[in-house]
Amino acid sequence: MRSAADSNIGVRRLVNQDRVYASDRPVGIFPNLYIVADGMGGEAAGEVAAAAAVESAVRFARSSWPGDPQDLFREMGIVVNADVYDIAVHHLEYAGMGTTFVAASVYEDAVYCINIGDSRLYAINYRDEFVRITTDHSLVEAMVQRGQITEEEARVHRDRNLITRAVGTNKSVQADIYRIPIGYPRMLLLCSDGLHGQVDDSRISEIMRINSYPLSVRVEMLIQEANRNGGSDNVSVILADLGKEVR
Fold first, then answer.
1. Helix H or strand E segment including 138
2. Class of the 2-241 domain?
3. Alpha-carbon Rg for the chain in angstroms
4. Is the confidence at residue 76, as pLDDT, over 90?
5. Are 49 and 84 spatial neighbours (Cβ–Cβ below 8 Å)?
6. What is the tens place of the pLDDT at every residue in 125-151?
7. In this structure, how many other beta carbons lie within 10 angstroms of the beta carbon of residue 128?
8. Which of 67, 77, 104, 166 is deepest in the core (most CB within 10 A)?
9. Residue whose C-alpha is closest to residue 9's, from 42, 39, 54, 49
10. What gap in Å lies between CA 13 and CA 232, rounded to an integer?
11. Are 97 and 45 in contact (CB under 8 A)?
12. Could you report the per-residue pLDDT of 193-230, keeping only the tens digit for each?
């Protein structure tokens, strides 16, 4: 396993409310851990929510006992939501803040993932196909699922930023948990909507496949592509290669 990660303020925002965390080495009981959180809220609230979510997740990983990975990720979602919600409740200036949260770990026999909101996990699989693993919790995703609009129309829809689930906005939240068997993915991409909302899947896939470039260069290429296309939001990217040694 090896990975590269970065987060960028974008072209139009004054503050970066995204947070990323990437470790190819063990984090407590997790053999590796990758997280993207995209905060929302006025003033500094969004960045506080995203930072708190990442810190809570890492703290959970370091303090948990071994168990079923799906149960561990489910419990992580409960703990992270409670921690962010507690900050929002007890600090008036952070009232109503929240964050998306997508995290993944290659754990024994599979890649495990938790998702809340509209940050995403993608994979390039063993057939060299680019696939989206997660389903957005957003208004436009629901419209796509009902056949009311296409995915291309969703990317430019006026309500594309309205999410239907977020960490910290309510006392509890339902998380989606995914298990992808080892041997199916060979590369993973975690990103905020600052990437997938600005760059279409075919271009993301094309950049990911440039194997002659280091992962860190491909991460920066994806961020630059998002900014060239308008950079209307913060953009965060983690690329992980499952077939390489850590270096």
1. none
2. alpha beta
3. 17
4. yes
5. yes
6. 989 999 999 999 988 777 877 787 777
7. 10
8. 104
9. 39
10. 7
11. yes
12. 999 999 999 999 999 999 999 999 999 999 999 999 99
- pLDDT score of 246 more than 50: no
Owner of token pair 């899947």: 201
Residue 108's contacts (CB-CB under 8 Å, 6 or more residues apart) are 31, 69
Q: Mean pLDDT for the chain?
A: 92
pLDDT of residue 139: 81
Q: Which of 80, 62, 37, 74 is nearest to 234 (CA)?
A: 37
With residue 153 as reference, give the H or E element that holds it: helix 151-156
| Dihedral angle over CA of 194, 197, 200, 206, nearest 10 | 20
Give the whole-angstrom CA distance, residue 160 versus residue 174: 21
- Residues with Cβ within 8 Å of 90's Cβ and at least 6 positions away in sequence, in order, are none
b/e sequence 152-179, b meaning 16+ C-beta within 10 Å = eebbebeebeebebbbbbeeebebbbbe
